[in-house]
Amino acid sequence: MVRRTLGPDAAVLQTREIGRGPLPWLTGSRDVEVLASTGVRVPQRFPDAAVSGGAVEEGSAGSGAVRSFGEVEAGPLIPPAHQMDYRSKFRQDLKSDPPDRHSLVEQLATGAESEPDWDTGLLGLYQSLTAADVPADLARQWVQRVRREATDEERTGLPGWKACAARLIAREIACGAPWEFTAGTPRVVALIGPTGVGKTTTVAKLAANYSLRERRRVGLITADNYRIAAVEQLRTYAEIIDLPLAVVSTPREMRRALDAFRGLELILVDTAGRSPGDELRLQELRSLLLEAQADDVYLVLSSVASSAGLVRAAARFRALGATALLLTKLDEAEALGNVLPLLQASSLPLSFVSCGQSVPDDLAVADRHRLARRMVEGADA
Ligand SMILES: Nc1nc2c(ncn2[C@@H]2O[C@H](COP(=O)(O)OP(=O)(O)O)[C@@H](O)[C@H]2O)c(=O)[nH]1
Ligand SMILES: [Mg+2]
After folding, report:
1. How many angstroms does the Cα of residue 186 sit away from the middle of ligand 2?
2. Claim to verify: residue 192 and residue 167 sit in the same structural domain
3. 258 and 216 in one domain?
């Protein structure tokens, strides 16, 4: 129909069903919209003989679209010289594929053809690590290390290599020791980090756990009064758990709040999220932290961030005196290979992990063996 209407050069650009015709249950008919044009050239899909005759003047090209196609410039999109039969070219390419070329799977597995002595088990380990978001170059280093250091029992195929990788990776992850409380002086714990990573939620979880479950006397300080409703967020938790809350915006106010909370056992300090690139705001935070003299400064980072982003953020916040890491959103992370460079590069121990939005339950003490298994096995581990 298109060719009858527009001539032999017309091309169908798109067809789609736009509904049922009248009385569809009687006729079974469907309405189909066809978009066609003589102004857009696509390579011929039929042998020349199959095209019915009927010359169309060059000048009329573009004017006879069934539906207006005005914005598209008239004239061939693909220069005639290139309008070859792409099907036969594709077939030719397939046939002429050199036999020594690695399959895509092999290319992915080796990254280069430089690991000829990896057996399928080691290739499988490499694939598991990269599938779990371990960056490719780091994954290669780990496979090489596993190959060197595996015990005889571990050299028995993929499950053995994986067990070895999990064992060695776990050894590289430092986890923090549990808090100790000394009578007479409150333990001060500050949470810092980029925006939206879950600092306030984690403060609420820690507060609820230590006050309701551990029966510690807990006080809250928030230095986040930049965002509308930031204070309200923590105030709501403080009211529900029944804890004192101080809002501070200067080092002097921080000092006063700490004095007022002298008789408590644990003081949790929430801070405003800072972009790792915002030097001015980082300095502001630094002066508040100096005044707080926190026993622990937890750098809170989201496990859904990129591996490079995590390493960069840790380097910037480290300078503020971070003493440990706290990872959030483990429930959202597919796998945890992306945090391996962070854990290897920063010498900070990992304290807690947050694995959901629910206060107070979705918080756990970091378990390096579980984390390592997830880096090797992916999200199911
Ligand atoms: N899925 C998930 N969401 C979280 C987790 N921790 C915090 N959140 C959510 O992340 C968002 C930002 O949290 P918030 O505590 O306000 O982050 P802050 O800006 O660092 O204080 C909120 O919607 C939280 O419910 C977590 O472990 N998993
Ligand atoms: Mg917050």
Report:
1. 22
2. no
3. yes
